[in-house]
Specification:
single chain; alpha+beta; Trna Endonuclease, Chain: A, domain 1; 2 domains; five-stranded mixed beta sheet; three-stranded antiparallel beta sheet; 11 helices; globular; disordered N terminus; Restriction endonuclease type IV Mrr domain-containing protein
C-alpha cells in the first residue's frame, strides 16, 4: 500500500488565510497546547498564532508563530513582527517561530536570530516552505493531501482541532505514520548504561501502550498531548496483528523494568536525593532492556517500512 505523494507544493497558489489554517492545523496535529489563532480576527500585532510547544524531557516553551506567506522573509518584516509581538504580549516569548512559504538564506537566518537576541528573545525557529512541507509529510501528510485537494479547512481553532483529530478516510500507511511518533522519544531511543537517567520511564511505557490502544497520547503528568489513530483504525488484518504484537512487547518491556526494580537489579544511585533521576543497572539488565526495545522497534518497522527510530 503506497502513500499518495504531492510534490512540490506551491504554497503561493493559496491565500494567506489558507496558509495560516494549514500552519495552525499542523501545530494542532503536532500536539501543541493552548493554540490561539490571532490572525483570523485581524490586527494580529506581529503574531498570527501563539501556543505552547511540548518537549519530551524538557520544559514546554511559550512560542509565537508568524506565517510569512510571501516569496522572501526579509529582516525588516521579521524584526517588525517580533517587535510588535513583544510589545503586544507585554513580555518576551521563549521562542519566535517563522513559517515562510519561500526560501530563507543562511545569511537571513543569522540576521533574524541577531535581531531576536537584541529583543531578548532567546530562541528563533525559521522554516522555509520546503522545511514546512517536510515536517507536514513527517507528521501530518494526510493534512497536506486534503489541503492540496482543495478541502476547505474550518475557521475556528476548535473546529480545526476536530477536523485534525477525526482521521477521515485515513489510509493504513498514513495512520502508521502518525502512530510512529509515540516511539520517537528517549524511552525508546537511548541505550541503557550502568548509570541511566530514568525519570518516569515506566510511565512513558504505559503511556505508549495507552496511545496505541486508545489513540490518546498523554504527558507524564496525564495531560493529553494529542490524538493519534489507534490499532482499531487499521484495516489490514496483518498490520493490525503486528501492532497487537507491538503492544504485547511494550508491556513485556514494562514488566521487565518493574520486576528488575523489585529484585534490586535496577536501583537508585544512592546519593540520597529524593528526586534524583539516576539509577544503577547491572550489565545483564541493561542488555535485557535494550534487546526488548529493539524487538519493539523491529516489529513496528515490519508493519511500517519507513519507520526510522532506532536505539542510539
Amino acid at each position: 500500500m503506497a502513500t499518495v505523494t504531492v510534490s512540490p507544493i506551491h504554497f503561493e497558489d493559496y491565500s494567506g488565510v489558507q496558509f495560516e489554517r494549514l500552519v495552525l492545523a499542523y501545530h494542532v496535529r503536532a500536539g501543541w497546547r493552548d493554540l490561539i489563532w490571532h490572525g483570523q480576527s485581524g490586527g494580529d500585532q506581529g503574531r498570527d498564532i501563539s501556543g505552547i510547544e511540548p518537549l519530551d524531557g524538557q520544559p514546554a516553551r511559550k512560542t509565537i508563530i508568524q506565517c510569512a506567506n510571501r516569496d522572501t522573509l526579509t529582516l525588516a518584516k521579521a524584526k517588525g513582527d517580533m517587535t510588535k509581538a513583544v510589545k503586544a504580549i507585554g513580555g518576551t516569548p521563549d521562542v519566535f517561530k517563522f513559517v515562510s512559504r519561500g526560501a530563507v538564506s543562511d545569511a537571513s537566518r543569522t540576521r533574524i536570530e541577531q535581531a531576536a537576541a537584541s529583543l531578548g528573545i532567546p530562541h528563533v525557529t525559521i522554516w522555509s516552505g520546503v522545511e514546512f512541507e517536510e515536517n507536514l509529510r513527517l507528521r501530518a501528510e494526510y493534512l497536506l493531501h486534503r489541503f492540496v485537494q482543495g478541502i476547505e479547512f474550518p475557521d475556528a481553532e476548535a473546529d480545526i482541532r476536530k477536523f485534525v483529530d477525526d482521521f477521515p478516510d485515513l489510509s493504513d500507511v498514513d495512520a502508521l505514520q502518525l502512530m510512529a511518533v509515540v516511539f520517537d522519544r528517549p524511552a525508546f531511543r537511548t541505550p541503557f548504561q550502568q548509570e541511566s537517567s530514568l525519570p518516569a520511564f515506566q510511565q512513558a511505557i504505559e503511556d505508549t501502550i495507552g496511545a496505541l490502544n486508545t489513540g490518546v497520547w498523554r504527558t507524564r503528568e496525564g495531560d493529553e498531548i494529542r490524538r493519534i489513530p489507534s490499532i482499531h483504525h487499521i484495516r489490514d488484518a496483518r498490520i493490525r496483528f503486528l501492532l497487537e504484537q507491538v503492544v504485547r512487547q511494550v508491556d513485556a518491556l514494562r514488566r521487565i523494568f518493574v520486576t528488575r526494580l523489585r529484585e534490586g537489579e535496577i536501583r537508585p544511585c544512592g546519593c540520597g536525593q529524593q528526586n534524583c533521576p539516576t539509577y544503577m543497572l547491572t550489565h545483564r539488565v541493561a542488555d535485557e532492556l535494550d534487546k526488548a526495545r529493539q524487538r519493539i522497534l523491529t516489529t513496528f518497522k515490519s508493519a511500517y517500512a519507513p519507520f526510522s527510530v532506532s536505539l542510539g
